[in-house]
Amino acid sequence: MNILLFGPNGSGKGTQGAILQKKFNIPHVESGVIFRDNMAQGTELGKKARQYIDRGELVPDGITIPMILNRLQQPDCRRGWLLDGFPRNMNQAIQLEAALKQAGLRLDWVVEIVFDRQTAKNRIIGRRLCVKDNNHPNNIFIEAIKPAQKGGVAICRVCGGKLKTRPDDQDEAAIDKRHAIYYDAEKGTLAAVKYFKEKKINAGSPIKIIELDGSPGVQDVSEALLRKLENY
Q1: pLDDT (tens digit, 9 = 90+) per residue, 19-32?
Q2: Domains, the chain, ranges and CATH?
Q3: Among 88, 123, 128, 157, the one annotated catalytic
Q4: What string of DSSP letters covers 21-87?
Q5: Per the count of CB atoms within 10 A, which of 10, 113, 158, 188 is most buried?
Q6: pTM of the prediction?
């Protein structure tokens, strides 16, 4: 089972990816991690990527896609993989699909978590981290996991520990920039999603498409996703 996973920051994409990873025993391959690993290991592609990153430039697709292919051809991906964070535009979608085909790797599923932009932003800004355990979910904008209160101070709803915020979660300009790329249906990530959808409709692509409403709770979303994957 080879899956491309799409969803904006704040949609719960990472959480759903972890659930799929555990359920199907396949690696959750994140493009950002691939970059960091290649640079840390000093691979030839990693050295080339670092030159662009050090100049504050985007790494060309001619470097990024071979990195991704190398990762997807590793032994732990033989049973399947879940690719997250790439492609980010239509041209990358076209190039990735061609590269996968040339490498003899099939793409089975495209999963899109559909989520309202403002709600996604609120979820990011509302995240609170428990200093005792980051896995304790707290979010001031999600009713089901709102922090508890003690003496007028928000505390972890699970263990009563102190809460903190990540600086990047509070950087609204950075959040808006990432979301602007994702929600752009002409030049951004949604254009890549549209490419796969239109190819399915117009060219009879064998790739299966799943649109998933990301607004319910984590458990509801994961149950709906697993049900669609198993019963498509």
Answers
A1: 999 999 999 999 88
A2: 2-26+79-116+183-231 (3.40.50.300)
A3: 88
A4: HHHHT--EEEHHHHHHHHHHHT-HHHHHHHHHHHTT-PPPHHHHHHHHHHHHTSGGGTT-EEEES--
A5: 10
A6: 0.90
